[in-house]
From TrEMBL:
Protein name, UniProt field: Adenylate kinase
Biological function: Catalyzes the reversible transfer of the terminal phosphate group between ATP and AMP. Plays an important role in cellular energy homeostasis and in adenine nucleotide metabolism.
Gene source species: Sorangium cellulosum (Polyangium cellulosum)
InterPro entries membership: Adenyl_kin_sub, Adenylat/UMP-CMP_kin, Adenylat_kinase_CS, ADK_active_lid_dom_sf, P-loop_NTPase
GO biological process: AMP salvage
Length: 213
């Protein structure tokens, strides 16, 4: 099972990825999480760090290499879920080439989470994540427990949020038709409780009878 989650920042990709990966028993691969881990470890180049914090997209070559290395690890043998990659057509083309070189693997489905912009801004500005577990919270809809050690992403501050949403709109203009033409794209309404959104995704995918494939 190779799944892609696409959608603007704040659409709920990370939240849905965790629920879907548990269900299908496949790992979640998030370029955003990998880049933030590199930032914490001090291994992310300064020019990339500045782009990330201001809400811009990194150059394609900076993320394609991450995905090439990660998808050949043993836990990806049964498939994986990509969250936040690809974001541009050159990244999507690189992914096709990469999968072809891995013995002719193919994408099963691309899920696009649709959420109106005003709600996205509200979700991003109130997002907090647990530093240790990576659990995603929302200060109003899903408040963190007292005493949790929280991270407030630099790019979730109001100054960066608008730029990120604009960057997404500019990029999807081309990415969504790319998958639409391949008949892989499924649009899912991302408004509602997280569990309701998961049910919509599962009904698009065809539910597995158990936790596995
Ligand atoms: P993305 O990975 O697409 O940027 P996240 O999964 O991190 O999105 O969610 C962004 C914010 O919105 C988080 O604060 C999360 O708790 C909240 N959120 C996610 N899904 C929902 C939902 N269905 N309803 C309300 N809030 C949500
Ligand atoms: P969100 O969950 O809000 O959609 P991510 O966590 O996926 O955001 O990504 C955070 C930041 O990391 C992006 O704003 C961008 O700077 C960088 N990034 C992540 N994935 C990619 C990608 N596929 N291409 C370019 N930049 C990326």
């Amino acid at each position: 099972m190779i799944l892609l989650l696409v959608g603007p920042p704040g659409a709920g990709k990370g939240t849905q990825a965790k629920l879907l990966c548990e269900r299908y028993g496949i790992p979640q691969i998030s370029t955003g999480d990998m880049l933030r881990a590199a930032k914490r470890a001090g291994t992310l180049e300064k020019r990339y760090l500045d782009i990330m914090d201001s809400g811009g997209l990194l150059p394609d070559e900076a993320v394609i290499g991450l995905i090439a290395r990660r998808t050949v690890e043993p836990d990806c043998g049964r498939g994986f879920l990509l969250d936040g990659f690809p974001r541009t057509v050159p990244q999507a083309e690189a992914l096709d080439q990469l999968l072809a070189s891995q013995g002719g693997r193919r994408i099963d489905a691309v899920i696009q989470l649709d959420v109106p912009r005003s709600l996205l801004e509200e979700r991003l500005i109130h997002r907090r994540t647990d530093k240790g577990s990576g659990q995603i919270y929302h200060l109003v809809y899903n408040p963190p427990p007292p005493g949790a050690e929280l991270e407030h992403r630099a790019d979730d501050r109001p100054e960066a949020v608008g730029m990120r949403l604009d960057a997404y709109e500019a990029m999807t203009a081309a990415l969504l038709p790319f998958y639409e033409e391949k008949k892989l794209l499924h649009r899912v309404d991302g408004v509602g409780k997280p569990e309701e959104v998961t049910q919509r995704v599962l009904s698009v995918l065809g539910r597995p009878s158990s936790g596995g494939e």
